């Protein structure tokens, strides 16, 4: 499947995207279903026509729909609404977290960007909408992914809405909530007896077979498009703050790609003049779990060598032991003067409750990781509580209820009578 | 607690609400924390100043926020944004369900109003935002409810966001997802050894005690305000259809109140001239489960006597055996020429999968009830598939995954190798 978007879908040919560019050697390739450089095997990224981006205005965005497609003029696909394969994710709430900030000693505003509000309740709806819109434009007729759970939910739901067959690959030990929420949409669901990294490797092999020639793996053969969807999180935060970039952002890391794309979004907004950089620039912080911390460990060891790990722990949606964008995440964090840290399972459980109690946001384990790391970064002095900060919650607590099921529950058990209520102490 | 809104909160005194009116004898009372008529013990409802409602324009609504508060000029509270106790629910997707419509034989458009997209993933966020805004205006300092689950989630989350103590009462046998998603917010959670109707009775007693004088039970002592929040579902459907009312709506029934308020919203929109009624009017259809069908049974038996039942079955969020608004739901369905039906647990499970597979919407059991009843109504000829129809999904499948956990799962289990994938038949 080597057809380019230009050849197969004139409806997306008017995008500002110009080419796929190798992040390693800089070689350029046409916009097609290709994810690795033919020259150095480096990963590819979408490059844009600067003049096209520079024409985008705030008013143009404000006049767009109340979802990620308001940023279509900054994306490689979806300029024509009829070309979109989408659940219309995005414009999720930026929640003021003043009570959380007060507990952690913040004197500047603290915000939670709550992406559990997306249609399948994680940020993955953003990347899947962009990837599958590219996939259909490129002529693919089956949608697929390798997933730690949230991506599986999103691909299966998008495929159901679009009426396109899907085949989703997951590690066999996922949380039941994520398995059911994929299977219910009726596509094929393949449980692999291994880790996410095993699943990913298998998908990289399958994509080369004749039998999968018609199949777009959102995070393999159309990965460059997929990754661009994460930029919308950065755009939204800036727009929701009244076209400002926050001084500090705390972002969970699995492959590390989300962190790099939020940074890329901020950079683009400044370059094209839609936003001014904050005084002192913005600082990017990365969060991992103690059970899967290869990127943070490399930073702490002051090395660019990311040593793959065999992931453990409850933050399964972040359990990528061999993170594809780890080097680029390291680069962004170092360049901006940020830092990375990681949280234990107990710290994650505590942080899920802390976030829920102070903000009303019930996060999945990944959100617990980010909140726990926020607390650590303040305690260690790496993150400045006198600067405006945004923490990203990328998923929904309902998908990982087992993480807190033993921590929380009814505070009273009472028979249905006033007398029983009095005896239980409910009446003082 | 008999203070009126006018006395305690001038910020909400400019609402179009005029009084509380008895649905039984028509007696009027000031806007206060009162839910039953002092003369005939009938239920109270908010009445509006017709002239105030008639001043509301489409442009005024369109200029409002992207949530229920765009309809504040049609609500009894929340005119001043700073007065709102809210997670900003609403403007949930109206999803085109063309594939579902095709399977059921529709020739007219079929839509799913997907209220699982609300902050705590059910329509209850709408009623809670209105009730708690009233409660704070009336001077209450603790928030409470009797709940079948979704309401518990919403009250606990709203209280956490607002920094107000909460105490939530639930039947002890609720789905774990709904228990955890309440408890995680850190308020008090009281599990009652009994049915929802037992819980509700206990709360009606507690509200009269001195110890609960400071406590607003959203669906007891501020119930008239609470119920008005459901009107926003009707307003949104009309606005999202381009200011049109659909010819047919299918609505799940627990107390029956949601159905009456969607009908009330349509009636208001026509009366104030924002929308024209469809040719032939609109028809309202009610959906219950076979395990709790007192309202539908009364209709089928052609009687106005609703005989309370002891609920059973998987659709727990609809399990109210003694439905407070049942008579009013009967009235609306008869007046508009609609009908009611009910679905068995197996039909509910099938319908959850049908809806997910054809629309990408994963509904909780209540959404399965509504979809199953839609199918029955078409099959029996009660609902006309040549007329535009909207089906309401009021909750999220993740909260009731046990309902389908034995029906769906991985379609393949494979070791992580190309050879194993081939042997499993994945390569044709």
TrEMBL record, chains A, B:
<dbReference type="GO" id="GO:0004795">
    <property type="term" value="F:threonine synthase activity"/>
</dbReference>
<dbReference type="Pfam" id="PF00291">
    <property type="entry name" value="PALP"/>
</dbReference>
<dbReference type="GO" id="GO:0006567">
    <property type="term" value="P:L-threonine catabolic process"/>
</dbReference>
<feature type="domain" description="Tryptophan synthase beta chain-like PALP">
    <location>
        <begin position="86"/>
        <end position="394"/>
    </location>
</feature>
<dbReference type="InterPro" id="IPR001926">
    <property type="entry name" value="TrpB-like_PALP"/>
</dbReference>
<comment type="similarity">
    <text>Belongs to the threonine synthase family.</text>
</comment>
<dbReference type="GO" id="GO:0003941">
    <property type="term" value="F:L-serine ammonia-lyase activity"/>
</dbReference>
<dbReference type="GO" id="GO:0009088">
    <property type="term" value="P:threonine biosynthetic process"/>
</dbReference>
<protein>
    <recommendedName>
        <fullName>Threonine synthase</fullName>
        <ecNumber>4.2.3.1</ecNumber>
    </recommendedName>
</protein>
<dbReference type="InterPro" id="IPR004450">
    <property type="entry name" value="Thr_synthase-like"/>
</dbReference>
<keyword id="KW-0663">Pyridoxal phosphate</keyword>
<keyword id="KW-0456">Lyase</keyword>
<dbReference type="InterPro" id="IPR036052">
    <property type="entry name" value="TrpB-like_PALP_sf"/>
</dbReference>
<feature type="modified residue" description="N6-(pyridoxal phosphate)lysine">
    <location>
        <position position="124"/>
    </location>
</feature>
<dbReference type="GO" id="GO:0006565">
    <property type="term" value="P:L-serine catabolic process"/>
</dbReference>
<dbReference type="GO" id="GO:0009097">
    <property type="term" value="P:isoleucine biosynthetic process"/>
</dbReference>
<dbReference type="InterPro" id="IPR050147">
    <property type="entry name" value="Ser/Thr_Dehydratase"/>
</dbReference>
<dbReference type="GO" id="GO:0004794">
    <property type="term" value="F:threonine deaminase activity"/>
</dbReference>
């Amino acid at each position: 499947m080597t057809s380019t978007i230009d050849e197969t879908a004139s409806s997306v040919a008017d995008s500002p995207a110009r080419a796929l560019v190798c992040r390693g050697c800089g070689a350029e390739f046409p916009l097609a279903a290709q994810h690795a450089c033919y020259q150095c095997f480096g990963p590819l990224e979408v490059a844009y026509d600067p003049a096209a981006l520079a024409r985008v205005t705030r008013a143009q965005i404000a006049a767009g729909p109340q979802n990620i497609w308001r940023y279509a003029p900054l994306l490689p696909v979806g300029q024509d609404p009829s070309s979109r394969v989408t659940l219309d994710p995005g414009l999720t709430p930026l929640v003021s977290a003043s009570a959380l900030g007060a507990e952690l000693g913040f004197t500047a505003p603290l915000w939670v960007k709550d992406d559990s509000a997306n249609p399948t309740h994680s940020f993955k709806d953003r990347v899947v909408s962009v990837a599958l819109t590219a996939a259909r434009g490129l002529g693919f007729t089956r949608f697929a992914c390798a997933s730690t759970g949230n991506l599986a939910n999103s691909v299966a739901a998008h495929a159901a809405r679009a009426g396109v067959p899907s085949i989703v690959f997951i590690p066999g030990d996922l949380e039941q909530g994520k398995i059911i929420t994929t299977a219910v949409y009726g596509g094929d669901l393949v449980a692999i007896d291994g880790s996410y990294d095993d699943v990913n490797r298998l998908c990289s092999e399958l994509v080369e077979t004749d039998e999968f020639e018609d199949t777009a793996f959102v995070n393999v053969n159309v990965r460059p498009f997929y990754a661009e969807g994460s930029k919308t999180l950065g755009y939204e935060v800036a727009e929701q703050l009244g076209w400002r970039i926050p001084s500090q952002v705390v972002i969970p890391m699995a492959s590390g790609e989300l962190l790099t794309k939020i940074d890329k979004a901020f950079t683009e907004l400044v370059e094209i003049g839609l936003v001014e950089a904050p005084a002192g620039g913005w600082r990017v912080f990365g969060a991992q779990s103690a059970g899967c911390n290869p990127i943070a460990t490399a930073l702490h060891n002051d090395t660019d060598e990311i040593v793959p790990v065999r992931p453990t722990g409850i933050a399964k949606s972040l359990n990528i032991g061999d993170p594809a964008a780890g080097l680029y995440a390291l680069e962004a964090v170092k360049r901006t003067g940020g830092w990375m840290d990681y949280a234990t399972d107990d710290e994650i459980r505590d942080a899920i409750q802390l976030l829920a109690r102070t903000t009303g946001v019930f996060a999945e384990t990944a959100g617990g990781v980010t909140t726990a790391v926020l607390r650590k970064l303040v305690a260690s002095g790496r993150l400045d509580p006198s600067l405006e900060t945004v923490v990203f919650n990328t998923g929904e607590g309902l998908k990982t209820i087992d993480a807190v099921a033993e921590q929380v529950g009814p505070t009273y058990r009472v028979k249905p009578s006033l007398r029983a209520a009095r005896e239980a102490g409910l009446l003082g």
